From TrEMBL:
This is Uracil-DNA glycosylase. One of its GO terms (biological process) is DNA repair. The keyword Transport does not apply. It comes from Effusibacillus dendaii. The lineage of its organism: Bacteria, Bacillati, Bacillota, Bacilli, Bacillales. Gene3D superfamilies: Uracil-DNA glycosylase-like domain. Residues 36-177 form the Uracil-DNA glycosylase-like domain. Signal peptide: none annotated. The keyword Iron applies.
Length: 183
């Protein structure tokens, strides 16, 4: 299948000053910057991967990573626009080496809670176990029994998928978006 679409760098929402100054976990010492979110901050759909991923080359040039490319192509294929999505990660900093995942997720949860309260998404989509466990606020949550159905979490209709499925092919996410686009 030929896709007539070229992924682009979506606009980033500037981080809040308390997130920029956050020192609650070791990621504060690793980070180059805080990534608050991208896409439309007022979008009805909030997508939640575990972390922001790579955005710049070592020399500082911006690029669209493979996961974001797959996401954008899936959005395009089902007829949605970038204005329909807001992507914000559980972690607000990209980890560049090993870190205490539980501590970092707990530290960033207050930022995510603030975003959810301010943005009031109509639906959310969690990518990966870390995102599910953080969004559900339950370290025992597991994607396997949760995927393929809708759940109400924090009062928000929510679906989940393995993060690697978005990176590898986007089939699950594409099917999810197709259902949204045809609601």
């Amino acid at each position: 299948m030929t896709i007539d679409y070229t992924p682009t760098i979506w606009p980033e929402e500037p981080p809040l000053i308390d997130a920029v100054n956050c020192q609650k976990c070791e990621l504060a010492m690793q980070r180059k910057r805080v990534i608050w979110g991208e896409g439309d901050p007022n979008a009805p759909i909030m997508v939640l991967p575990d972390n922001p991923g790579a955005r710049e080359t070592p020399s500082g040039e911006s690029f669209v990573c493979g996961t974001r490319q797959t996401l954008q192509i899936a959005v395009h294929q089902v007829g949605l626009q970038k204005e329909n999505l807001y992507i914000t990660s559980i972690l607000k900093c990209r980890p560049i080496r090993a870190y205490q995942k539980d501590t970092a997720c707990s530290a960033c949860l207050s930022h995510l809670n603030r975003q959810i309260l301010e943005k009031s998404p109509q639906m959310s989509f969690c990518l990966g176990n870390v995102a599910v466990q953080s969004f559900w606020d339950d370290p025992t949550s597991d994607i396997k029994p949760l995927q393929g159905t809708w759940h109400t979490v924090r009062g928000i209709p929510t679906a989940v998928s393995y993060h690697r499925w978005l990176s590898a092919a986007g089939r699950i996410f594409l099917a999810f978006l197709w259902r949204i686009g045809n609601r």
